[in-house]
Amino acid sequence: MKLTTLQIEDLFKFTRKHFVYHYDVQSELVDHLANDIEEIWKETPQLSFQDARDTSFKKFGIFGFMDVIEAKQKQMNKGYRSILWRFFREWFTMPKMMTTLTVFLSLYLILKIQYSEYFLLGALFLILAVDLIKQTKARKTQKKKEQKQEKVFLLEAMIGNTRQGFATSGFFQLFNFLISVVDNVEFSNLPAHWLLLTSFSTTALLILFYVTAYLIPQKAEELLEETYPEYKLVKNL
Amino acid sequence: MGNQKLFKGSLQTIILKLLETNDKMYGYEITQHVKALTNGELKITEGALYPALHKLEADGLLDVEVAKVGNRLRKYYKLTEIGSKETANKLAEMQEFLKTMQHLVNPKFSSE
User: Fold this and answer.
1) Number of domains in chain B
2) For B66, which of A39, A60, A229 is closest by C-beta distance?
3) What is the CATH classification number for the domain harbouring B73?
4) pLDDT for A187 beyond 90
């Protein structure tokens, strides 16, 4: 006996109820449960759909789908990092290298001006404020998608959410550091190697921020199609 | 069921070997195949199979294909080029391990 479309839908709801929120993970588990239920029915055809489903779920052990979710998250973290690295690297090869160098040198020259620490502090504050607004909007859109129970892929959620872990926290560190030193240190008086180091790390942080907050989300569709062979198929369903 | 612990460390090798012989397989098919090949002696648990598959995929040893089967999507796994090479390595490692175990648990048998 084969499962009906309604029963398949029920299995999707079942995975969601057990904390599997992303479509790529859900669909694999649903196929597994469905196969197992059909197998169980071969031996005990009188068993109801719910009982067969629960029997099958028990085979996942006491942690249910948790191990599967965790492994998938780890796999995608690795995937996201490699995408990030691919985009980041581009800024250190020609022709983008010219932009990187310009930013780096401009920062260095600015830092040499008196009171540059206040300028840097102001610029950072501005970036963080703009980003905060952007992130709040992104989170609202994501919530709406979840409420509508749209099919959200794990990497899709990561492109929208995870990025705050990288660049923004880096900016916050820098911001805090500047606040703590701003009364005691004048950047313009620091030796050249300190200024070069500060310019370099700020440049790297700026690129990281630009890549995670703008470039990767812009190319999201392309990246999702590359990662998930089923992406196009599912979105057209 | 005590012997399940012994199998645990070999799960990745088992998956790779199966995919080497069967080209492409989906998760449930792997569990059933192992059950049939070992006459039910070895049951791969669901909670261990998918994490292992996802790890192999993240390491670039497996590639995926998705097909619509009836009213659901099915995800097939197959070996990548690196995966094929790694399978040979893992199998050689496993043979070596089995030989060592033989020496340890059955010295008479192995000395002949």
Assistant:
1) 1
2) A229
3) 1.10.10.10
4) no
Angle A154-161/A220-227 helices, nearest 10 degrees? Answer: 150
Q: For residue B5, what pLDDT band results from cuts at 50, 70 and 90? A: low
- A158's CB contacts (< 8 A; 6+ apart) are A76, A77, A80
Distance from CA of B50 to the nearest CA of A (A): 6
Using the Cβ of A151 and the Cβ atoms of chain B, whether some distance falls under 8 Å is answered with no
A3 lies within 8 A of chain B by CB: yes
Per-residue pLDDT at A14: 93
Chain-chain contact of A60 with B46 (C-beta, under 8 angstroms): yes
ipTM: 0.80
Q: Is B78 an 8 Å CB contact of chain A?
A: no
Answer whether residue A45 shows pLDDT above 60. yes
Coil vs helix vs strand at B79: strand
Question: Chain A within 8 Å of B64 (Cβ-Cβ)?
Answer: yes
Q: For the whole model, what pTM was predicted?
A: 0.78
Helices (H), ranges, chain B: 4-8, 11-22, 27-37, 46-58, 81-105, 107-111
Higher-scoring residue by pLDDT: A236, A122? A122
Query: If you measure CA to CA, which chain B residue comes closest to A12?
Result: B72
Give the range of the structural domain holding residue B105, as residue numbers without chain letter.
Answer: 4-111
- 3-state secondary structure at position B48: helix
C-alpha B93/C-alpha B99 separation (Å) is 10
Closest Cα to residue A127, out of A173, A159, A181, A172?
A172
* Interchain CB contact of A27 with B (< 8 Å): yes
Tell me: pLDDT of B80 over 70.
yes
